[in-house]
Amino acid sequence: MQGDILSTIVLPLGLAFIMFTLGAGLTLTDFKRVFLHPKAFAVGVLCHFILLPLVAYAIVQAFGVTGAMAVGFMIIAACPTGTTSNLLTYHARADVALALSFTAVAGVVAVFTIPMILDWSINHFMGAQQKINFPYGLVMGQIALLLGVPVALGMALRKFAPEFTRRFHGTMGLIATVLFVLIVLGAIAKNWGLLKEHAPSLAPMVLAINVVMLLLGLGLSLLTRVPMRQAVTVAIESSVQNSTLAIVISSTILMNDTMMLPAAVYGILMYFTGILFVFVARRFLPPLTTEEQVAAAAAMH
Fold first, then answer.
1. How far apart, in whole angstroms, are the C-alpha atoms of residue 200 and residue 194?
2. Which range marks the domain in which residue 150 is found?
3. CB 96 within 8 A of CB 299
4. What share of the chain is helix, strand, coil (3-state, %, to 5)?
5. Which of 7, 20, 100, 199 is the most buried if burial means most Cβ atoms within 10 Å?
């Protein structure tokens, strides 16, 4: 019963608040700002929505993973970026405004792409075990409820109560961070036996996906002459996924805890690769000017 409550109530509500907090930091301008950096945005879309699923699939194949565990990795690859990527972008001295814009657009696009990747992954990796008529409409509606509605409510709060939002957005962000940690820890605690058994084999795969996508995002950006600040942003946005959403999809929508294990490991290890990349990026990016610091701080709040 406790596991059911965690999966059906606690996890979705926790994710809803996290996405509400993300929405409270967005405006409609964030959706339009991507056109200021069309080349960087195009590379980001290529990396995030096309190369990331392909890289995840290639690594799953290379490690010989099949069944529900393989689907779990594809769920991670299907999820959009989240608040963590924006925070890492800020500390890397990269383009926070671009990061926020990409996060906003990716969240909308993911409502349509996640069901497609889920359907293909389940049929490909579990076709012999679990023949299903995938409920596209139902899953798309659930993803929209998990992503779109809380973000829209957060944006509405910022629009109609801007002073209140500015005053409490920092506190909301802290609560969202705590909720993220609790969700990951809850997922680990609930499936400790499975995780203990599989973590040694999952960790190298998670790290491989992170590192490959960081390198692809940065490398392709520089090859297409994207400025360094935007290139670092694209690298982070290409590799840091919304692991909370992946946990909720696995536990609540698909009701398969094995699928959730890659997301639980990912939710921990993405910080190690992300923070290391931030330290490296800061050695190559000049300090922000006073005006840029003010603009970045304002964008984060």
1. 11
2. 2-300
3. yes
4. 85, 0, 15
5. 100
CATH number at residue 62: 1.20.1530.20
Distance of CA 112 to the CA centre of its chain: 15
From 217, 16, 178, select the one nearest 98 (Cα to Cα).
Answer: 217
> What is the SS3 assignment for 277-300?
HHHHHHHHCCCCCHHHHHHHHHHH
183-234 tens-digit pLDDT: 777 777 776 777 777 778 899 999 999 999 999 999 999 999 999 989 999 9
Q: Which helix (H) or strand (E) holds 55?
A: helix 52-62
Give how many domains the chain has, as a whole number.
Answer: 1
DSSP letter for each residue of 36-49: GSHHHHHHHHIIII
Query: Would you say 71 and 125 are in contact if contact means Cβ atoms under 8 Å apart?
Result: yes
